[in-house]
């Protein structure tokens, strides 16, 4: 199966555009899942309580500096599979290229549903698997053992859209995009909003 890109923009350009268009609209207590170095904070409204969750020690120092810059915000040194927050305690969750990396995607999404308040939203931008028997999927599966080691545990061949739709949200709205990839492949991407 041959897949053609649906955009000329790269995955990074699409992610930056998504972040600039979606994150400023979030309000209240916002959990940033796998916050990395905390770049999401740049696009959040100043009155948002940013809760940056990150398990990797290597990112923590830089992330802590960013959290301190925003009064009221918090840093959680934890994994998405075991979020140290009470039930129904946040208004929104950000997942930006993190559900590819979590150890147990089903458990992480169950935790997201648990900590969201009714009516709260998961906003997400993720790279996902190509269709079965596509060149893209063949490359993703071949590259998986390497990316798992060198890229924060990333598995590029996950059907994250299906996992989100099966996680128990009240509604899911999603847009799919195929960005240009390497060696004649594409990078399949999803961006969307899931309402609890
Ligand atoms: C590609 S980075 C994305 C960082 C950030 N969300 C962004 O958009 O710049 C993936 C992040 O997921 C984190 N991560 C890996 N496993 C995780 C887990 N089980 N729970 C939460 N975050 C995890 C990694 O440490 C890393 O910071």
CATH superfamily: Vaccinia Virus protein VP39
Note the main sheet: 7 strands, mixed
List bound small molecules: S-adenosylmethionine
Residue share in helix: 25-40%
CATH topology: Rossmann fold
Distance between the termini: 36 Å
Strand-pairing-aware structural class: alpha/beta
Number of strands: 7
- The helix-strand sequence is HEEHEEHEHHEE
Give me the number of helical elements: 5
The domain tally reads: 1
Q: Which architecture would the CATH scheme give at its second level?
A: 3-Layer(aba) Sandwich
Shape label: globular
In the CATH scheme, the class would be Alpha Beta
- Taking all residues together, what is the mean pLDDT? 96
Low-confidence stretches: none
Strand order of the largest sheet: 3-2-1-4-5-7-6
Report strand %. Answer: 25-35%
Description:
It is a single chain. The protein has a seven-stranded mixed β-sheet. It has one domain (11-195): Vaccinia Virus protein VP39 (Rossmann fold, 3-Layer(aba) Sandwich), CATH 3.40.50. The longest helix is centred in the last third of the chain and has 16 residues, at 135-150. It has helices at 11-22, 57-68, 105-115, 135-150, 160-165, and strands at residues 29-33, 49-53, 74-76, 90-96, 116-127, 171-180, 186-195. It is globular and about 50 Å long. The chain starts with 10 loop residues before the first helix and ends with a strand. Helix 3 links the parallel strand 4 and strand 5 (116-127). It is of the alpha/beta class and 196 residues long.
């Amino acid at each position: 199966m041959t897949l053609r890109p649906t955009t000329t923009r790269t995955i990074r350009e699409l992610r930056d555009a998504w972040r600039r268009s979606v994150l400023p609209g979030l309000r209240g207590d916002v959990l940033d899942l796998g916050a990395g170095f905390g770049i999401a904070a740049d696009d959040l409204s100043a009155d948002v309580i940013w809760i940056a969750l990150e398990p990797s020690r290597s990112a923590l120092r830089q992330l802590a500096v960013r959290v301190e810059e925003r009064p009221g915000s918090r840093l959680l040194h934890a994994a998405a599979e075991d979020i140290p927050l009470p039930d129904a305690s946040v208004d929104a969750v950000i997942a930006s290229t993190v559900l590819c990396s979590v150890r147990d995607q089903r458990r992480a999404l169950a935790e997201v549903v648990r900590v969201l308040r009714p009516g709260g939203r998961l906003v997400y931008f993720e790279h996902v698997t190509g269709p079965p028997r596509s060149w893209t999927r063949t490359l993703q599966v071949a590259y998986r053992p390497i990316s798992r080691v060198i890229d924060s545990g990333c598995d590029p061949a996950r059907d994250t859209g299906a996992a989100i739709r099966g996680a128990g949200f009240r509604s899911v709205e999603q847009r799919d995009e195929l960005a240009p990839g390497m060696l004649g492949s594409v990078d399949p991407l999803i961006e969307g909003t899931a309402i609890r």
